[in-house]
Amino acid sequence: TPITMILSIAALSFAYLNTSLPEPIPIISLGCLLGTLALFSLNCRRNNLLPLGAAVGFVLAIVSLVLSFVVDGPLSVVCRLSTAAALLPLFPLHVSYVGSLTSLPGASPAFLAIVLPCLGWHTIVANVPVIPQPFAEIVTAIAVVGALVTAIRTSVQIDLTRIFASVGTILLAPVWLAMGTGAKVNSETGWYLMSVSVVTSGLLLCAHHLESRYGTRLLEHLQGLAQPMPRLSILLGLFVMAAAGGPAFAVFSMSMAMGQASNQLHVLVLAPAVWFVSSLLLVSVMQRLVFGKPRSDLVYEDLGLCDAGALIL
To answer: Fewer Cβ neighbours under 10 Å: the N or C end of the chain?
Structure first.
């Protein structure tokens, strides 16, 4: 099932991104992609309402996509941004991003962690390269509020996959902050988005390895991995350091480049605050997951060469 999901989503994504295809094939491909994600979310729903919320978010994105061709002027811009917000997470449509990354099986969430933000970025670059006023100010305010609300909810979350998906949402908020300056989107912001997406994918892949071994994603059931699982612990620690803005990793360097390119005070102030909150959440998770007390009733099994190779790549 995960392989079928990845192949179908990849095919529709390439059809949408291929600018050489005649219209309306790319737009139809995007609509089919959103519909496919909604169906996958409903089909893989667990014992909570988050997959249902993800499906509703993708359906709203389809409606916004259709309306963008019906209405003109400022309303068309709002519809395009709404479609992008379901892919490149923006409150409250970020539920599509978090829900799909939390509910879909196997390694497909790690794949979607890269695909969805890139598709949302392409939607904005291709259709709304400059967010006009006053929409830019509204987008900035929503991004700040969304990051704050998500951080508060993540601080009490115990599902490991949902924690990582929510942290990815918080780290992507500076992308909307940079676009909310009213300036034209730049390559620095795109590279920051890509670096965050890759790190989020790695974190979700670590969570998938743990769930496939022990059948649980609850943080309280997965503790003390440092000694019995040193390979996974080291790689997980590297991903956490990268997501927290370690100077040796791309998230830090691209964030600095994005801040200099935007040249706006609120981006230079709010973006580091977002990274600081994300780092606190990730360090707290790592402290419990890696340095907690090992359980005596679990048979710990470290990563094999193939699993470690996937994470290293």
So the answer is: C
Q: Phi-psi region for residue 147, left (φ > 0), alpha (ψ -120 to 50) or beta?
A: alpha
pLDDT the model gives residue 262: 67
Between 298 and 303, name the one with better pLDDT: 303
Dist CA 137 CA 59 (whole Å): 26
Give the number of other CB atoms < 10 A from CB of residue 49: 12
- From first CA to last CA, the distance across the chain in angstroms is 23
Q: How far is CA 250 from CA 47, 109, 241, in A?
A: 37, 21, 11
DSSP label at 223? -
Task: Give the pLDDT confidence of 186-211 residue by residue, as tens digits.
Answer: 778 888 899 899 999 999 988 888 88
- What's the pLDDT tens digit per position in 252-286? 778 777 777 766 666 667 777 777 788 888 888 88
| Amino acid code (one letter) for 36 | T
With the CA atoms of 9, 12, 17 and 20 taken in that order, what torsion angle do they form, in degrees rounded to the nearest 10?
150
Distances (CA, A) of 174 to 16, 219, 239, 279: 25, 27, 19, 15
Structure tokens at 126: 């291709």
Residue partners of 213: CB distance under 8 A and separation at least 6 = 301
CB 167 within 8 A of CB 281: yes
